[in-house]
Design a protein that fits this description.
This protein is mainly α. Helices cover 40% and strands 5% of the residues. The protein contains eight helices and three strands, in the order ααααββααααβ. A three-stranded mixed sheet has the order 2-1-3, with no helix packed on it. Helix 3 crosses helix 8 and helix 6 crosses helix 8. The termini are far apart.
Length: 214
């Protein structure tokens, strides 16, 4: 291999070497193994880039399906004005865990400051149908963008009903999230009520007004 060829090879490999060294140093800073490395990837990982954090948050809310449960009318196909997004739905989701309600996020999220909200999301494993594992997998930057978008909407509407335990019947309409058995030629058997209890998860203490809602 001639000197000119070797020079071209070294020039081509230089960025790769820099990336490799950066990766090794990053792993060392994160502790190099186990949950620390995983937490580091979550906190510093991929994120949405947009003109602003608020615009990034708007995109994440839209593509993440947050409006399906948290914005009235979206599941029915309504084109809801953005000013009315995330104001909560007073229709319960009922299953063995009890009955949960999709929060009015415009009122619930500002109860936390930004850092506390991220810590809450990282620590909380609440009740269905809220997809907490999806939030756990997001980077801190994306969670901050979501926080900034939601708080930019300003508080609107009212709080949704609080959680109803599995041994109680909710006073509101609800959607039963349990399998339905349909006898031949008949209606579904059973009322779709809870079939037992399940723990609500290990969420930290939340500000007043945020407990019992997802």
């Amino acid at each position: 291999m001639g000197a000119e060829t070797r020079g071209r090879v070294r020039a081509a490999l230089a960025p790769v070497a820099i990336l490799a060294i950066t990766g090794v140093l990053g792993a060392a800073q994160l502790g190099g193994c186990g949950s620390k490395a995983t937490a580091g990837r979550q906190q510093q990982g991929n994120h949405v880039t947009a003109a602003s954090d608020v615009e990034a948050g708007r995109y994440l809310i839209a593509v993440g399906g947050c409006n399906d449960c948290h914005t009235p009318g979206v599941m029915q196909g309504a084109q809801v004005p953005e000013a009315q997004w995330l104001t909560g739905i007073p229709v319960g989701w009922r299953g063995p865990w009890g009955t949960t309600y999709a929060s009015n996020l415009t009122r619930m999220v500002p109860l936390y400051d930004e850092d506390d909200w991220i810590r809450m999301v990282r620590a909380r494993n609440g009740r269905p149908p809220m997809p907490w594992p999806s939030l756990h997998a997001m980077s801190d930057k994306d969670l901050r963008s979501m926080y900034r978008y939601i708080t930019s909407l300003g508080p609107k509407g009212s709080d949704v009903p609080a959680f109803v335990p599995p041994d109680q019947t909710p006073a509101t309409p609800f959607i039963a999230l349990v399998p339905q058995v349909v006898p031949a030629g008949g209606a579904p058997a059973g009322g779709g009520g809870p079939g037992g209890s399940a723990p609500g998860g290990g969420a930290p203490r939340a500000p007043a007004g945020a407990m019992g809602r997802e």
